[in-house]
Amino acid sequence: MNLKELVIFTLILFFALFARLWRLDYPTGMYFDEVYHVPAAMMMSNGDFVRPFDFMQSSYDGQNVADWLHPPLVKYFQALSIYFFGKNPLAWRLPSVIFSLFSLIVFYFFLRFLGQEFFFKKEKNEIRNDLAIYLALSGSFLFSLDGLFLVQSRIAMNDVFLLFFILVAVFFYCAYLVSKKYSLLFGSGFFLGLALASKWTALWLILLFFVREFLPLKNFKKLPFLFFSLLLTPLFIYLLSYSPMFFVGYKFSDFLVLQKTIVLSQLGNPSFHLYSSEPLSWLLNLRPVWFFVNNNLNKSWTANIYALDNPLLNFYLLLSLFITILYLFSEKENNLLKKIVTLLFSLYLLSFAPWLVFSRPMFIYHYLPAIPFLIALLAYFLVNFFRKTKEISKKRAWLFNLLFWPFLFFIIFYPHWTALRVPSDFAKAVYFFVPNWR
């Protein structure tokens, strides 16, 4: 990493860190799904590992029921933060900030690796290295401007933890595709297990990697290792994440009953939510989730937290999606570039498309794990476009416009993602310009 690259990437990280840390302790109480996640983490920080696994519990504080519906790994990180920094909003949200920064760092080096080993493999070393750097810098900067990524980084939920573990697992898998080292495949399975122990949606990627390795298999001597790496290892780590449950006296039969209850609850939850939305609407950024409103302001001011994507970046991603589909249909040769585009597109689809088969309430933040894979494709198309533009002045103009305007939209919508006070008329004109955004 040369000095210029290091400086620019450091600036991106500091920008992302500042956007996440500023006023992180506001709202001063639990909001949205924190009312489920935080009580469980607080119990664990007090050494109570009985009630967080009891789906028959009445409530934590007479009002809120501690989360047992999701795997416990994330709550351990939140509990550690509460144990060391106290029972306050900063403590229970800080792990989300940390893992969001980890996600951005992993994403940067993942893009750099894709540029070196896949996207620009045919180029000479120096050119390939420069293009990989441009790919990583532009992609990570655009990802730092993502609204859903920001909002989920500032709340005590499990989405950014899932995102981090998925990105690392995919990084390991792509490295395995290049080197064919079994240790890398095991590493991918290990982090998929951590993702599964954070949220069940990791299951789709586990199945994708296993099927992708199993179908072309000719030497079945490799099959036991596939089972071990991509199936048994994730399941073992998932089971291991529940080990505190067994230490406090629960039996394996209790664990199975809990898992069955989780499945029935997830699949059979017919409850209605005003801000739920269909998965296909996530592509168009049509229905945000209203997380919080400050009711202590007079009518001329408003302060909200909405889980809404960056509108202009969302348009970029939609355009990238169409370009990707056109490329896959038009490219006849099954070369290295098409293989990695196909893989990224598959990762994108499997990160949100399975939600289409469920009837339970779904929310736009479920789309978050899909976004980085589409941003990776967007960054490739942008860099490929820039390299074909010969005039330096045009190249600079395109670069400025394609990166500056999403940044400007980020600045404009930042109050809407973080409950900064703004005039009500401004909010109506800008933040609720689309009727469904209200």
For this entry, give a set of tags:
single chain; 438 residues; mainly alpha; 18 helices; 3% strand; globular
Anisotropy-based shape: globular
Let me know the average pLDDT. 92
Q: Please, how many domains?
A: 1
Q: Major β-sheet, in short?
A: 2 strands, antiparallel
Strand fraction equals under 5%
Helix content: 55-70%
Compute the gyration radius: what is it? 22 Å
Order of helices and strands: HHHHHHHHHHHHHEEEHHHHEH
* Count of β-strands: 4
Would you mind describing this structure in some detail?
The protein has about 450 residues and is mostly helical. The chain has one domain. It has 18 helices and four strands. The strands form two sheets. Strands 1-3 form a two-stranded antiparallel sheet. The longest helix is centred in the first third of the chain and has 31 residues. The protein is globular. The N and C termini lie far apart (about 45 Å). The mean pLDDT is about 90.
Topology record:
Elements (H helix, E strand, L loop, with lengths): L2 H19 L12 H12 L27 H13 L3 H31 L5 H20 L2 H7 L5 H21 L2 H15 L6 H12 L8 H19 L1 H5 L4 H16 L11 H5 L5 E5 L7 E2 L1 E4 L3 H20 L5 H15 L20 H18 L3 H27 L3 E2 H8 L7
Antiparallel strand pairs: 1-3, 2-4
Helix pairs in contact: 1-4, 1-5, 2-3, 3-4, 4-5, 4-6, 4-7, 5-16, 7-8, 8-10, 9-10, 14-16, 15-16
In summary, what is this structure?
It is built from 18 helices and four strands.
